[in-house]
Structure formats: C-alpha cells, structure tokens
Amino acid sequence: MPHVSYHTTLNAPLFDVFKLATDFTAMPTWSRETRSVHLMNADPLRAGSMITIERTFGGSLIFINADLIEFQRNKSYDMSGVHGRFRFRRTIEFTANSGQTQVRDNFYVYTSALYFWYNPILKANMAGYLKSEWAQLAKALGK
User: Fold this and answer.
1) Do residues 137 and 30 touch, judged by C-beta distance below 8 A?
2) Global confidence as pTM
3) Which domains does the chain have, with CATH numbers?
C-alpha cells in the first residue's frame, strides 16, 4: 500500500488556509488539475458529506468519489473513497503557528498485489500531486 506524507508551512493564518482547503467547490479556480467538484450533504461541510472530483492525475483523467469520515473545523479532515480505480484514505491536519499554518497531509492508496510493481510509480505521482496541490493553494492565498 503506497503511502505519502507531505508537510508544508503556509504563510497565512489557519482560518484562511482551512477555509480555502475545505471550499471544495472553489477548487477548480486554484487547482489546474481539477476539472469539476460536486458535493452532497455538505451544507455545512461535515462528517458524512460526499465529494466527487473530476481531475487529472499522472496525465490521465480520473474521478474521485469520497466521503468525509471526520471533520474538525480549523483542525483536520479525513476522507475515504475511490481515487481512480484504487481505494484511498487521506487525512489532513492543520496547526496554527505564529500567523502561519503547518499542514500535514497523509495519503494512503490501497492497491492489490497485482499492482506491486506499479506502486513506486503511483507513489511518485502521489508525492508530486500533493506538492503541486499545496503550492497552488499557497499561490491562491497570495502567500
């Protein structure tokens, strides 16, 4: 099972970072890989909300179907579902630190034994995806 953990510090207050990171419908405006986002049971966003994202990943168009399984405002969220053809779980934690926000993003993809040789490629794509996504979010914050 490939796992990527990405850590970054954004030069913006926690409230601003969390607000943009969890405004999934705004994601296509700041993430060049995201084509569309649809939410169900998400007013307000909470555990049990469902998210469908159409985006490119590793050069291919994929669909992400996920459920928020935990949501703590201005602290963390945890989602689980299907990323392309693989099951996944992603946990993102936010911590305020002197006007900046530290982000810890853990992304797990569950692959079968048949994909063992594909795991290093998938892991490299996941690492690039997380790095790019957080850099684009920082740019959207103007930081």
Assistant:
1) yes
2) 0.89
3) 3-140 (3.30.530.20)
